[in-house]
């Protein structure tokens, strides 16, 4: 392994993650799951992301996703597995990813040498992903690697995204931030989803949000205007650095040149997807 420049791994992750995350905003996933009676947006998301874990309980989904209300999860899980088995959902997810990437990137990019190169680099990085203590990463890593390069790239990006995400949950627990406090403080940092999207997708209401803000104020992490205090900003930064430390192995394995090239390629794909409307314009906080 070689040492990477500071934040190189995080920058690479930040370029890989958008194309993974785009599937949860794409109508293609809902379209593929609709024939099985899975139509509610919450059910589509929970089934699509949890399927690699198998026909798990609501408790398992709440634990591994962390920032979703357990009440929301129990509305759909485990009942969703009666509508479609995890294997059926995974097949539908892959079809949805294929349709989405063709729509967002175009056939020329899908079949390009650059896509094949990006897939090879991302898959190499996943070789160093660790499974213990990382349930979502481990579950996705067990899935077969698709043959088509654009699907292999999405698969690898998903494994890498969940590798970092699983680590981040451990950091949140260490910092003593409950699920909604984590979301509120992330939004206050200017990097998280806008409150309307958090409340609309995670199963919380405005009263829950206000109560979480008050808890953060009591800890000195949030000010009266809902902005992070100096202590709050410092905590969020340290949490990201801690996550970086727990997520370095895949990128160290890929090496400095490989990480730089993958960041470049992934950034191009992410920009193209964003320009094609992969995400709502008001998704993120200002």
What are its keywords?
mainly alpha; 17 helices; SalK; HTH_67
Provide a descriptive summary of the structure in words.
This is SalK. It comes from Streptomyces bathyalis. The chain has 286 residues and is mostly helical. It has one domain. It is 68% helix and 0% strand. The protein is built from 17 helices and no strands. It has helices spanning 8-21, 27-33, 41-50, 58-65, 70-76, 80-83, 86-105, 107-110, 113-126, 135-141, 149-175, 179-188, 195-201, 206-218, 230-246, 249-254, 256-275. Helix 11 (149-175) packs across helix 15 (230-246). The protein is globular, with a radius of gyration of 19 Å. The mean pLDDT is 97.
Summarize the helices and strands and which ones pair or pack.
Layout: H1 8-21, H2 27-33, H3 41-50, H4 58-65, H5 70-76, H6 80-83, H7 86-105, H8 107-110, H9 113-126, H10 135-141, H11 149-175, H12 179-188, H13 195-201, H14 206-218, H15 230-246, H16 249-254, H17 256-275
Organism: Streptomyces bathyalis
Protein name: SalK
